Amino acid sequence: MNDENPLYPIEINEYPKLFDYVLTSQGLVYFQSLKRSYILGKELTLDEYNKLRLLYVYYATANRNPKEVTVWQDICMTLDKRGIYEKNMFQSKEDLKNKSLIIQNPQYQSGLYRKYVEHAKDSMK
What we know:
Blueprint: E1 21-23, H1 25-39, H2 46-62, H3 66-81, H4 89-98, E2 102-104, H5 112-124
Antiparallel strand pairs: 1-2
Helix pairs in contact: 1-2, 2-3, 2-4
C-alpha cells in the first residue's frame, strides 16, 4: 500500500469515480454522527457498522482524501479483527438509498475499483 495513495494504482483525482453512490448533505450529517459514536467507543449495531463502512469510503473518495481512505481501511481491518464482519451490506445500502442519505454518483466509472482490488491481490502474492 502506498502511504500517499492508499488506493494505488488509482490516481487520487480518479477517486470520485470509484463508487456508484455519494453522500447527500443529510448523509454527511448521519456519517459524522456514526463516526463520532465509533470514535467515542460506543457499540453500534451491525447495520450501523455497515453504514459506517459505506459512508466512510464514499466520503473519503468523493473528497479525494487519501488520509481518510487510510482511516476507512483501518476501521475496516479493526472491525474485522473484532469479529464484526460485513454482513447484510446490501440491505444497509438500500436503507441509505431509501432515506436519501446517498444518491447515485454521476461520475461513477464501473470497474475502476476492481483495478485497485486486482493490484492489491497481486501485491499480496
